[in-house]
Structure formats: structure tokens, C-alpha cells
Amino acid sequence: MNDKAETDTIALNRYILPLFDGKGSTKQNEKVQHFIERCTEADAFIICTPEYHNGISGALKNALDFLNKVHFHQKPVGILCASGSESTGLNALNQLRLVCRGLSGSVLTSQVVVSPDKINDDKQIDHEGVLANIENLIQELIPFAEFLKERRHGEYV
């Protein structure tokens, strides 16, 4: 991995946000404000969702609803899915890709599906192929993030 990259993790199962109300009143919530600030500061996103009934997590969709194009414009997005098997996950990834594109995110063409048989009892990925796919996604994301950051700040002509 690139030593210059800094990471920040938001685990939505621990970082519980209120339901988005569409009117903006829930944006006044302290956790929501903190979430929005963290996303504003990000130069790129790697978003992983479990697959639920061929779609993304409701908690993830709710969190993304608090954001808008300002938070994703000219920022690359890498997507991953934890699915029930190797042959599933694509519907959730396609849905996530669509939502992120709706937010003006530059979603990478590469994506990763992680099935339960690739995760050990400690809930860690222990399959070399999947780990290599994740590393490749990160290696694709970092230079794209650096390029787009320069563009956002007017350093690239």
C-alpha cells in the first residue's frame, strides 16, 4: 500500500445515524454533522456494503442520503460487497455504483466481492486472491485520488 495514504473508517454498525428525513432537520444532529465533516475532508472513498436482498445496506443508503454532490465531486470511489456467495453481490455493487454516481462520485470500474468462505473465524479475510483484489483496488484508487485532488485545488491544467 502507498505510505502516503491516510485512512479513516466509519463503521455504520457502531456509528448510528438518525433516519434521514429529507427536510434537513436531521442534519442538525451532532453525529450527522461529524459524518458530513469527515466525508467533506476525504479525498476518496472505499465503501463496503453487505448485500441484503440483492441491495445495499439500509444503513449505508441512509448515511449516503445525508451527503450530496459537494462531498463526492471529483473524488474516486472504490466499492466492495460482503455477499452470501461468490456468485452474488453484483446487484448490491451495481446499486452502490448507481447511488455514488448520483452523488457525482467517480466510481472505479474495479470492484470486489467477498463471500463468507473467504472470511475466517476472527472475521478477517484470509484468502490471498481476495486480498490481492482489494490491494489492486487500493492501488488504482490512490493515484486517481491524488490526480483529482490536484484538479479540485486547481493544481492541474
TrEMBL record:
GO terms for molecular function: FMN binding; oxidoreductase activity. Residues 4-115 form the NADPH-dependent FMN reductase-like domain. GO terms for cellular component: cytosol. InterPro entries: Flavoprotein-like_sf (IPR029039), FMN_Rdtase-like_dom (IPR005025), NAD(P)H-dep_reductase (IPR050712). Pfam families: FMN_red. Belongs to the azoreductase type 2 family. This is NADPH-dependent FMN reductase. It comes from Bacillus thermotolerans. The lineage of its organism: Bacteria, Bacillati, Bacillota, Bacilli, Bacillales.
